């Protein structure tokens, strides 16, 4: 393993980037944040959904790490990252991540995320557009689409079969059963409720940002809007709303995918992002 490591010195802290993703902790303004980190190349940041998928290094993380230095942080209050008393809005998370990039010495990154992570990426990009080389947003809320209201995730969460039907194109398929089985172990249940509590803190009173739409014009970098064609939780209408305010953005849907394309259609998800990220310009 040592042959795959390189040391990046930032002040008094040594950050290790491995060829294969490893869990590490970054101090962000005095608050420890869990990350998965691996690969070499330009910085590529993956922001996770409410599912908290960045708790481990997954095949799609590795696919990105074959080309880039990938950072997959866990949002404060999710998985094993301690809650931050000063973070209770999506905007707060955007500021958390700019402080993280500052700590790492990263002036510019390829930034994107799925669902909640995509919303955070959008909020970051409108505040610090110069820090984003390329932006991708997948199946993300954040905008108000009154004709297509979001389902009540907090109510549906109590019923795992209903959750599978909300999140997946094929709720009876092997991936849905693997991720949302009818008899989860205790650790999975505890983590799921912890992540839902983290989401409630961010979205319970404010399920969208009323200022985001008018601010999206600040985003001038190449942008990809990527949606599961059968997303029932955050339907493609939300992607179309982002597209309205990001007219330069590339729009792509993934047939046969629901809200979690990185699992249900992993190859198509990775291919779409890699083709976008590696394209000149």
Structure description:
This protein is 36% helix and 21% strand. It is of the alpha/beta class. It has a single domain (7-278), classed as Alpha/Beta hydrolase fold, catalytic domain (Rossmann fold, 3-Layer(aba) Sandwich), CATH 3.40.50.1820.
Quickly give the structural class. Answer: alpha/beta
In CATH, the homologous superfamily goes by the name Alpha/Beta hydrolase fold, catalytic domain
Percentage of β-strand residues: 15-25%
- N-to-C span: 35 Å
Write a concise synopsis of the structure shown.
The protein is α/β, with parallel strands linked by helices.
Features of this protein?
21% strand, disordered N terminus, Rossmann fold, globular
Structural topology:
Blueprint: E1 6-10, E2 13-17, E3 22-28, E4 31-38, E5 43-47, H1 59-65, E6 69-73, H2 90-104, E7 109-114, H3 116-127, E8 132-138, H4 153-156, H5 160-167, H6 174-179, H7 186-203, H8 212-215, E9 223-228, H9 236-245, E10 250-254, H10 261-264, H11 266-278
Parallel strand pairs: 5-6, 5-7, 7-8, 8-9, 9-10
Antiparallel strand pairs: 1-2, 3-4, 4-6
């Amino acid at each position: 393993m040592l042959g795959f490591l390189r040391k990046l010195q930032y002040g008094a802290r040594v950050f290790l980037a491995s060829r294969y993703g490893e869990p590490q902790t970054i101090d962000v303004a005095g608050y420890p944040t869990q990350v998965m980190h691996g690969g070499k190349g330009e910085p590529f940041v993956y922001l996770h959904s409410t599912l908290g998928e960045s708790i481990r290094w997954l095949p799609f993380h590795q696919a990105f790490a074959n080309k880039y230095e990938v950072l997959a942080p866990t949002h404060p209050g999710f998985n094993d990252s301690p809650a931050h008393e000063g973070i209770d809005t999506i905007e707060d998370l955007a500021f958390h991540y700019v402080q993280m990039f500052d700590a790492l010495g990263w002036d510019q990154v390829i930034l994107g995320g799925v669902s909640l992570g995509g919303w955070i990426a959008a909020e970051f990009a409108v505040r610090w557009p110069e820090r984003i080389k390329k932006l991708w947003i997948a199946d993300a809320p954040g905008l108000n689409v009154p004709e297509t209201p979001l389902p009540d995730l907090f109510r549906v969460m109590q019923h795992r079969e209903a959750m599978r039907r909300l999140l997946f194109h094929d709720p009876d398929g092997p991936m849905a059963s693997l991720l949302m089985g009818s008899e989860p172990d205790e650790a999975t249940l505890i983590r799921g409720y912890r992540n839902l509590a983290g989401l409630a803190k961010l979205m319970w009173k404010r399920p969208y940002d009323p200022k985001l739409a008018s601010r999206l014009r600040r985003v001038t970098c190449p942008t990809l809007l990527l949606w599961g064609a059968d997303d029932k939780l955050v339907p493609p209408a939300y992607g179309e709303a982002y597209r309205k305010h990001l007219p330069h953005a590339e729009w792509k849907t993934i047939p046969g995918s629901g809200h979690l394309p990185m699992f249900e259609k992993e190859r198509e998800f990775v291919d779409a992002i890699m083709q976008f990220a590696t394209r000149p310009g």
